[in-house]
Amino acid sequence: MSTLLRKVWGSVSNRMCSASPNPPFRISSPSSSSIAATSSDSSSLGALFDSIPLDILLQILRLVGPKDTIKLGCLSRAWRLFVSDNRLWIYFLQNYQRHGDPWDSVFFAELNLRAGYPLQPFPSHSRELSFMHIYGQRAQVPGSVIIDGGSGYCKFGWSKYACPSGRSATFLEFGNIESPMYSRLRHFFATIYSRMQVRPTTQPLILSIPLCHYDDTDSAKASRRQLKDAIHTVLFDMNVPAVCAVSQATLALFAARRTSGIVVNIGFQVTSVVPILNGKVMHKVGVEVIGLGALKLTGYLRELLQQNNINFESLYTVRTLKENLCYVAADYKTELSKDTRASLEVPAVGWFTLSKERFQTGEILFQPRIAGVRAMGLHQAVALCMDHCHAAELTGDDAWFKTIVLSGGTGCLPGLAERLEKELHETLSPSLANGIKVIPPPHGADTAWFGAKFISNLSTFPGSWCMTKKQFRRKSKANIMW
């Protein structure tokens, strides 16, 4: 401990010498007797440190690092109180934690998600949070496998990684579609674990589930329960130690640092508008579904290219052009009169130049009829969902459903969030439209994966977020989150 104090004192001495040519007190290394006095005095930090401003000492401890700071807390009660300063540990969480999550994401997760599911509507422990305690817990959280089972393709990887490490066909369309669900799921998860080169028995698993069986009917509830049971049965037969299965829409909302709102998930084949209150999908309010997804946008762009005699070799080329050149116009009619030409080189294929096709592709989200689709426009479906939320009167005000989060790769189209917000203001009554905020996918096509990452790095994980094999066999009446 004396060596540690000398290290801190050396940092203080160097700082004071560099800050002033005539230091206000004599700089010298602490003697053994002074260190002993510091350790035994519970009312001060020690004679050598009491004269130093606390904000300077905090800066010094930042340089010392979290491990040595913890050791200093063992010296005395005064040191213990001093090193527990939340400002210090917020800095350590920002700069030393191995997961690399942004501070605002860490704060959101620890404030709103650490108690587990069901979420607390109004967290009462925010002022009681000890970030020193949280730092220590997060350092001991085991790594988890995260699988985002998207509707088009899934993303998988370790929770300690900065982003997903691989992609695969989704389990909903994996293998032989005519095979029994158990066989398909077993094949899917075995393939993912093989690609990650990890045994299923070693780490907890967080799985995002694409929303399906949308209604609040008994048959829809039974279908959701059947899929849930099939997933858990397969994973526990593979001896996965703990499983956390959460709706893809809920995870996308968490990634936007929200627990309530409306998630507009533009999937592979359909678009779903999902109301979520305190992390729970509100099936009773109603999930709006539009028979229009990323595949239809790609197909429509292909038709436009063919009409304009633009040759391409595969849908991969069309999808690449959609993802890199297409956008959503703020005003469709005005955009038609503009020169919107832009070019892109598709690797190993060649150069392509698009003009009006760039914004005509995304326009079918708002005017499906121009692509021959008989469905509501995206803004109409969201407005209908908001009307239902307002009529349900689930809370004392309407603020909870006025945050709208886009998810899915197509949700990343430039201009989509702004156009949707504009259309909603024109469609809804002023009272409902007031305060609306549309948020683009916070992490692009990987948004749901990052929402799962927030959960996996919680200081209390796995806690009540996960189900074990023993709990599953007991058929506990856990709330379904998806």
TrEMBL record:
Residue ranges constituting the F-box domain according to the UniProt record: 46-92
InterPro entries linked to this entry: Actin, ATPase_NBD, F-box-like_dom_sf, F-box_dom
PROSITE patterns: FBOX (PS50181)
Gene3D superfamilies for the chain: 1.20.1280.50, 3.30.420.40, Actin, Chain A, domain 4 (3.90.640.10)
Pfam families associated with the record: Actin, F-box-like
Family of this protein: Belongs to the actin family.
Protein's name according to its UniProt entry: F-box domain-containing protein
UniProt source species: Hibiscus sabdariffa (roselle)
Classification of source organism: Eukaryota, Viridiplantae, Streptophyta, Embryophyta, Tracheophyta
